[in-house]
Amino acid sequence: MDADPECARGVVDVSPSAGRVCCPESCGGTCGGSGCSGLPGGAHDCCKGTILADGQSCDANEAPCVIEEAEAFVHPGLLNNQQELETIRENANTNGTLMRVGFLKAQANELASLQWQEPAYSDLAEVMFGRGQPPTEWAIKASARAAYLHALRWVVTGQSAYRNKAVSILDGWSANFRRFIACDDEEMEYSAGACERSIGHEGAWVAAMFASSAEIIRHFEPNGATVAWPEAERFGRMLEAMLNQSRVYVHPEVTQLFDGNNRGLSIALAHMAVGVFNDDRRLYDEGVALWRRMLPKVVVDTNGTLYEFEFRNDCSHYLFSVYALTQAAEIAFHQNDDEVDLYGESNFRVLKALGFVGRVLTGEITATDEEDGNRVIDCGCDEDNEDVATAPGLDLPYNHYKYRIGSSSSLTKLEEAFAMCAIEGEMRPDDSRSMFLGWSTLTHGELNKL
């Protein structure tokens, strides 16, 4: 028999009693209730008690069958869980800790100030992405990062003003945003169709960032107390609207456009993040499936070679692949699902990718200049390098492999990069990119160190 786990081809019972069952449509468009044994198919097909007693799961059978309840999501459960947020609060308030250093860096950012001027949300129903960040793109990406910083400042300080600021930002967008719109390819000097395609990954970047701040605001419980957020459901609908515009790129034929680059991974990350926030198992599972598909295309071998760096000579976007890989893996870790260990899958390619990043940042591996074929070092982290700020966010995966599972030997080059890149203070303690959240020295710096 064909499985029908969501009873798409049958009728779900409406009884408030425990357990959910699926009856075949031959029961007359109803399932269970008084007189069910007299329906076509009798008690075997149409009575809830009989179907529950038979115990045939819809995961492996069609109706009549028992609908398996999906395991509830852990909240907060994106980049940090409740216990970790409490650890962040304690360590960020303790002098001498790495998280304290990370907190001082984060709170110094202008986006973290209560005086940061929020954009005019009524002018932002439509958001356009493009070269040089058009005003609406700048507004939405700055807002996503500002909301995250204020959520973290609330966690650390306990001051409600920071939470209120984050809520104001999130509510402002959810009350006004309607859709992403494509830029003009010719005006942006893009190839034909690039503006429309960019909505897929740009929208995913924004949705994932917003979801991370919203998850904290909705679910963090300071001192065990729940704090209400009246417009949380509306915000969740906005996230799904954003994701719906990038969902077309999840289609197997379309994702071939993303082979080897960070875009498919970014869309996978957004699906997982929005799926958790909205308690939508379908979205989450789609994200996991896409992440698994993209992994061997982005990290092309078990040595950790990153496609965008090695084969596209790209000294910036290859790190976007690492951020999307590891932030998605961190979400899966917090969901405590034994069947979804994204950090450990595919011969620890993610761990090897971190080693590859360390080798790039320390200059051991260099890119090729496509104009003259010479090898050049243009993506390291020396103090004269304008690309020095391209490597925030790495304390998140480093904490996992260093302190949760103890894979120290594979992290030597990344540790060298941490030391080298500290010259300008751009990598540790880190700041953030406009596409992916950073400040990982605050959120993950020695988080699990015993």
Describe this structure in words.
There is one protein chain. A hairpin with a 7-residue loop joins β1 (10-12) and β2. α5 packs antiparallel against α6 (160-176), α6 packs antiparallel against α8 (194-219) and α11 (281-298) packs across α13. This protein has helices at residues 42-46, 48-54, 82-92, 98-107, 135-157, 160-176, 185-188, 194-219, 232-246, 262-277, 281-298, 307-310, 317-334, 345-361, 395-404, 412-421, 440-444; strands at residues 10-12, 20-24, 65-67, 126-128, 179-181, 367-368, 375-376. The radius of gyration is 24 Å and the shape is globular. It has 2 domains: 10-67, no CATH class; 82-444, Glycosyltransferase (Alpha/alpha barrel). The protein has a 3-stranded antiparallel beta sheet with strand order 1-2-3. Strands 4-5 form a two-stranded parallel sheet. A two-stranded antiparallel ribbon has the order 6-7. Residues 372-378 and 385-389 have low confidence and may be disordered. The chain is mainly α and 450 residues long. The protein has 17 helices and 7 strands.
Can you tell me the residue ranges where pLDDT is under 50 for at least 5 consecutive residues? 372-378, 385-389
**Helix fraction by DSSP (H/I, runs of at least 4):** 40-55%
CATH secondary-structure class of the largest domain: Mainly Alpha
Radius of gyration: 24 Å
What amount of the residues lies in strands? under 5%
Which class best fits the helix and strand makeup? mainly alpha
Distance between the termini: 51 Å
Q: Please tally the helical runs, counting DSSP H or I stretches of 4 or more residues.
A: 17
**Could you please say which CATH topology of the largest domain applies here?**
Glycosyltransferase
